[in-house]
Design a protein that fits this description.
The structure is a single chain. The chain is of the alpha/beta class and 244 residues long. The protein has helices at 15-27, 43-50, 55-59, 67-70, 94-106, 124-127, 147-164, 180-196, 205-208, 210-217, 223-243; strands at 5-10, 32-36, 62-64, 76-80, 111-115, 132-134. The protein has two domains: 5-164, Alpha/beta knot (3-Layer(aba) Sandwich), CATH 3.40.1280.10; 175-243, Helicase, Ruva Protein, domain 3 (Orthogonal Bundle), CATH 1.10.8.590. The longest helix has 21 residues, at 223-243.
């Protein structure tokens, strides 16, 4: 059901939580688990919490060193956060995130949900690598969720939405959705083009690019559209250089 969805655990601290998260993945039909630099991964401690049924998910989990490596190839990456405001704007509810993610999967893309370390969550720099942020509403007196609880809640929303709107076959290869790394290349070129025409300030350009990031994250850009926008950026930069 969620074969094009992956759960990324970024620097998880406890193997028991990894095991519980694997069981949550199995419950919701998401068997793609990626671990980024786990601080203490002990398969023997994780297995009892995963149960024998999710053993294959733990044993097949991909372990990488960086978040950049983990999100490579995904069309949508959604970071979880309990904090809001500042850099963390345009945050989605689980239901909204599930709808957006389902749209990307039905269009032939792959999505990932990123969960930060249990004690501090994702930093601002780490959330900048995500195409969107999602928060799970909780009672204001206790906003902390166990890692596996958070995994289960978000995957449940994705699973429920997938049941209502079954996946459709992907389009032709030339119409594939752009990946996160391609989107970063596009952002970089747009930022430089806007700097060249003095639309952006030289200082703190990442902050002024935030509305552009949120706008672009709403669209399912395909490779041919990526090429179009890259061509526009190149022409703007060429013209700006000629004027100077």
């Amino acid at each position: 059901m969620l074969e094009n969805c992956a759960v990324i655990l970024f620097r998880p601290k406890y193997p028991e939580n990894i095991g519980s998260a694997a069981r949550a993945c199995l419950n919701m039909g998401c068997e793609n688990l990626i671990l980024v630099a786990p601080q203490m991964f002990d398969l023997d401690k994780a297995l009892p919490l995963a149960t024998v049924h999710a053993k294959h998910i733990l044993e097949g989990a991909r372990i990488v060193d960086t978040l950049e490596e983990a999100i490579e190839g995904f069309s949508g990456v959604y970071g979880t956060t309990a904090r809001t405001g500042g850099w963390r704007k345009g945050i989605m509810t689980p239901a909204t995130m599930a709808k957006v993610a389902d749209g990307k999967m039905r269009a032939g893309g792959k999505v990932a949900i990123v969960f930060g370390p249990e004690d501090r969550g994702l930093t601002n720099e780490e959330t900048q690598l995500c195409t969107g942020l999602v928060t799970i509403p909780t009672h204001r007196e206790n906003t902390s969720l166990n890692l596996s609880q958070a995994v289960l809640v978000l995957l449940y929303e994705c699973f429920k939405h997938a049941l209502d709107t079954p996946f459709k076959p992907a389009g032709p290869p030339e119409e594939r959705l752009i990946t996160v790394d391609e989107q970063e290349v596009l952002f970089s070129n747009i930022r430089q083009a806007l700097l060249d025409i003095d639309y952006l300030r030289d200082e703190n350009t990442d902050y002024w690019m935030m509305p552009v990031r949120r706008f672009m994250a709403k669209m399912n850009l395909r490779r041919n559209e990526f090429n179009l926008l890259m061509g526009i950026c190149r022409q703007i930069k060429w013209l700006a250089g000629k004027v100077r």
